[in-house]
Design a protein that fits this description.
The longest helix is centred in the C-terminal third of the chain and has 21 residues. The protein has two domains: about 200 residues; about 55 residues, no CATH class. Helix 9 runs parallel beside helix 10. The N terminus and C terminus are likely disordered. The protein is of the alpha/beta class. Strands 1, 2, 3, 4, 5, 6, 7 and 8 form an eight-stranded mixed sheet that branches.
């Protein structure tokens, strides 16, 4: 018998077993829908999440663990001070309007067996029900976590409640899971609306306060609500030089495309309601 060959086979089996035991995990946290409760230390969020996950695996560590906090208004919720504290503990921060895209992107790079914890409000979880079902069929473990209702239904598992997870006295706050950033482009701070990645937190917060970011947020709103962006009256021209440098070329390009399409163009969209768009911040704050 070729003992070298048998030894290599056993080694490969052991490696496969270790890889299976150290499955990857993602925590995607919509911090707007599920903020840190009053009285809780932002610096303790990561160890609470890590130990809660490891308890599910009977204290066996996960492999690479990614935690991403998303919001469409990070400068307000949780605010810059808390953002800085969360970043210092290894949490990636992302400006986005939902978690679904991140779920699919992460799953495409991390095949099952793997675990995904989604921390958000009840409404978004309901919208994600079919997504969760599809991921579970593929072999992922889905752990929805949300603010505790009042009164709490006794049928729901304890881990489901965000406040309970953060307050669990049983959590020993000692973990061996390897936390890695889940940012895009290799950076832990990103904006999905502007396709912007930041190497440092200050660049990220400055971007969120910029007129460029404000314009692309408005453009997203205008597209979603079918606002006519060939009409100068709708474009808020004159707001700032930075805004105009983006808005004018966009308006001209859309007008040219509309002219070329002629009779095949879709009907004109309704005019913008000036009071219907609310910015997450004011430029310069």
């Amino acid at each position: 018998m070729n003992f070298d060959f048998v030894g290599k086979m056993n080694k490969n089996k052991n490696m496969a077993r270790e890889q299976h035991e150290e499955e990857n995990a993602l925590v995607i946290w919509n911090i707007s829908n599920c903020p840190i409760p009053d009285g809780h230390d932002p610096l303790q969020v990561v160890p609470r999440i890590q130990t809660a996950l490891e308890k599910l695996r009977r204290d066996r560590p996960y492999g690479p663990l990614s935690i991403t906090a998303i919001s469409n208004n990070l400068t307000e919720i949780p605010g810059e001070d808390v953002m800085r504290k969360l970043s210092s503990t290894g949490i990636s921060l992302k400006h986005a309007h939902g978690v679904q895209t991140d779920l699919y992107q992460w799953a495409s790079r991390n095949p099952p067996p793997a675990t995904i914890m989604v921390i958000t409000g009840h409404e978004e979880l309901e919208h994600l029900a079919s997504t969760f079902s599809g991921l579970e069929e593929e072999g992922y473990i889905i752990l929805p976590t949300y603010p505790q209702p009042n009164p709490a239904p006794p049928s729901l598992p304890k881990l489901c409640f965000w406040e309970t997870l953060l307050s669990d006295a049983d959590n020993k706050l000692v973990t061996t899971s390897r936390l890695i950033f889940h940012g895009t482009g290799g950076y832990p701070w990103s904006c999905s609306v502007c396709y912007f990645d930041a190497p440092i937190l200050e660049d990220f917060t400055n971007h969120l306060k910029s007129e460029t970011h404000a314009y692309f947020e408005w453009d997203r709103f205008a597209s979603k609500n079918k606002i006519d962006r060939t009409n100068p009256a709708n474009m808020q021209l004159g707001r700032s030089q930075e805004w105009d440098l983006l808005a004018k070329p966009d308006m001209i390009r859309r007008a040219e495309v509309l002219k070329l399409r002629g009779a095949f163009a879709p009907p004109r969209s309704r005019p913008v309601d000036a009071n219907s768009f609310k910015e997450p911040f004011k430029s310069g704050e």
